[in-house]
Design goal:
Layout lengths: L8 H15 L6 H8 L13 H15 L9 H18 L15 H16 L4 H23 L6 H12 L9 H13 L6 H13 L7
């Protein structure tokens, strides 16, 4: 068993993130975390005062992993890179999707991220209210896609093709579901990759926001 003296807040939070990645956040408890660290449950409260403080720190780790929108590029490219990075990070930490906007005591990485996103939109010419609308829209798209993607029964084009041929098509007789049957057959034959839907939708969102700018 590891000594409590070997603990640190960074180690406690990192182990909590690993547990959540593996088992989900629902079953995470201070006792469960202490067991994984080989420490006494009460000793964890020296580093995090409550489970809520632990969750704040865990979400901060997630925000730290998301690429900030780069400053030396146009706003659409910057926000696209940030959105793609957020999707990749949330694929590694799907437990975080429902918690990203729930923290009332955000950590430093969380605040840096939000400042950088707001700065990108404001410098691009979006007024304060419109920048807020854009931020909400982009985050809702990223989180919603990440949530849907995490629940899919396939994660590759080959996986989709196998599901379409072996599972979907047998449930879609063409006389009853002609359009669904056609779609499943055509997409499977074309090597359709559901992962490409993210950039398709993201580009539509960014294009729809462009006319709302007031360039300076």
């Amino acid at each position: 068993m590891a000594s409590d003296a070997a603990l640190s807040k960074q180690r406690v939070v990192a182990e909590a993130v690993r547990l959540a990645d593996r088992e989900g956040v629902g079953g995470l408890s201070m006792r469960r975390l202490a067991g994984a660290l080989g420490a006494g449950a009460m000793s964890l409260y020296y580093y995090v005062a409550s489970k809520e403080e632990l969750l704040d720190a865990m979400i901060d780790v997630v925000f730290e992993e998301i690429e900030l929108p780069p400053e030396q590029t146009d706003w659409q490219s910057a926000m696209r890179r940030r959105a793609v990075s957020a999707r990749q990070v949330l694929a590694r930490h799907p437990w975080a999707i429902g918690l990203m906007e729930s923290r009332t005591s955000p950590g430093p990485a969380n605040l840096r991220h939000r400042e950088a996103v707001t700065a990108c939109l404001r410098r691009a010419g979006f007024p304060v209210l419109t920048a807020t609308h854009a931020n909400w829209l982009l985050d809702s798209y990223v989180y919603g896609f990440a949530l849907q993607e995490a629940s899919l029964p396939f994660d590759t084009a080959d996986g989709f093709a196998d599901m379409a041929e072996d599972v979907f098509l047998p449930q879609l007789p063409p006389d009853e579901f002609p359009y669904l049957n056609e779609s499943a057959a055509v997409l499977a034959a074309a090597g359709y990759d559901p992962a490409e839907e993210f950039t398709f939708g993201l580009d539509l969102v960014l294009a729809a926001l462009e006319p709302l700018r007031v360039p300076t």
